[in-house]
Amino acid sequence: MLSRLGFAFVLAGFYATFISIRSHPARPPLPSPKNATELFRLAESRGNHTGYLTLNEVDDIYHVFDENNDGNVTEVEFVHGWVGRGLGTNSSAYKMFENADTDHNSVITMLDISRIFTYFDRNYDGHISLIEFIIVWTSLAL
């Protein structure tokens, strides 16, 4: 069994290792769970306030980006909506569009939204929890 002093040294060692890895200049910054939480709360606030995202709530957000209401979200519409709402930079918007256009036909459709929803719904219960959202969002490393 580790003594308190031994435990403190082990903990200090882990902390020092974590800080040196995280702050290494060649390492890209870690994605922010705070940004994921803010985006989840924004999406969830448009729905029924259950603390989960449903496919209908995600669909509702999709239509916000469809500026000309033709049923498709183009790259231009997506980038304009993403940056215009302060959700990220042009660079992150282009990367997100690339990930969201699952069939690579240069538009995001309801089929893409359904696939994205399934991808985020890690336990396949028909809802996306905040934890599921953060885990998937940070794995995308936008």
Question: Summarize this, please?
Answer:
It is built from seven helices and four strands, in the order H-H-E-H-E-H-H-E-H-E-H.
Structure description:
- With about 140 residues, the chain is mostly helical.
- The chain has two domains: about 1-30; about 30-140, Orthogonal Bundle (Recoverin, domain 1).
- The chain is about 60% helix and about 5% strand.
- The chain has seven helices and four strands; from the N terminus they run ααβαβααβαβα.
- The protein has helices spanning about 5-20, 35-45, 55-65, 75-85, 90-100, 110-120, 130-140; strands at about 50-55, 75, 105-110, 130.
- A two-stranded antiparallel ribbon has the order 1-4. A two-stranded antiparallel ribbon has the order 2-3.
- α2 packs across α7 (about 130-140), α3 (about 55-65) packs across α6 (about 110-120) and α4 crosses α5.
- The model is unreliable at about 5-25 and about 25-30 (pLDDT under 50).
Radius of gyration (CA) equals 19 Å
Unreliable segments (pLDDT under 50, ≥5 consecutive)? 5-24, 27-31
Q: In percent, how helical is the residue content?
A: 55-70%
CATH superfamily of the largest domain: EF-hand
Number of helices: 7
The overall pLDDT, averaged over residues, is: 78
Overall shape: it is globular
Order of helices and strands: HHEHEHHEHEH
What is the CATH C-level name of the largest domain? Mainly Alpha
With strands numbered from the N-terminus, the spatial order across the biggest sheet is: 1-4
Summarize the biggest pleated sheet: 2 strands, antiparallel
* Strands, total number: 4
Overall structural class, as computed from helix and strand content, comes to mainly alpha
Q: Provide the β-strand percentage band.
A: 5-15%
Number of domains: 2
Examine the secondary-structure arrangement and name the CATH architecture of the largest domain: Orthogonal Bundle
CATH topology of the largest domain, what is it called? Recoverin, domain 1
